[in-house]
Please model this.
Amino acid sequence: MKISVMTYAFGRAFGRKEMDVAAFLQMCAACGVEGVELGGVHLHGTPDGEIRRMVDDLGLAWPVYIGSVDFVVDDRTRFLRAVDAAKAEIERARRLEVPIVMLTTGSPKPEIEEARGRALIAEGLRLASEFGARIGVR
Model:
């Protein structure tokens, strides 16, 4: 068994600009964890090549890339934009050579019935998965 840490565990620190990806990676390496799971929302402003280099230079594994999208919307145009965002996250993970993509899919909304929200998530994941399969990400 190996231990990894995800950036979402430090989401508030990232949000308050008290931590950036470089500081997160340094902390993980100093703590002796073997891997990191980096969320795309926490990587803004840092070029992909630089992120990959930092991870590799610190000897960390990067088994999971976390992409954030929101499929739970009650407008077809917004839903399709979310699907496009999921596709972009999958493409980014492939460029970064991260083997697994985890997609967060959005939260329930009071104006959208729960069953409808689940159906939107299922459809969004199906479309994203089909896209991933077409570009060789499974």
Observations:
- Residues 53 and 63 are 15 Å apart (CA to CA).
- The radius of gyration is 16 Å.
- The first helix runs from residue 11 to 15.
- The chain has a mean pLDDT of 94.
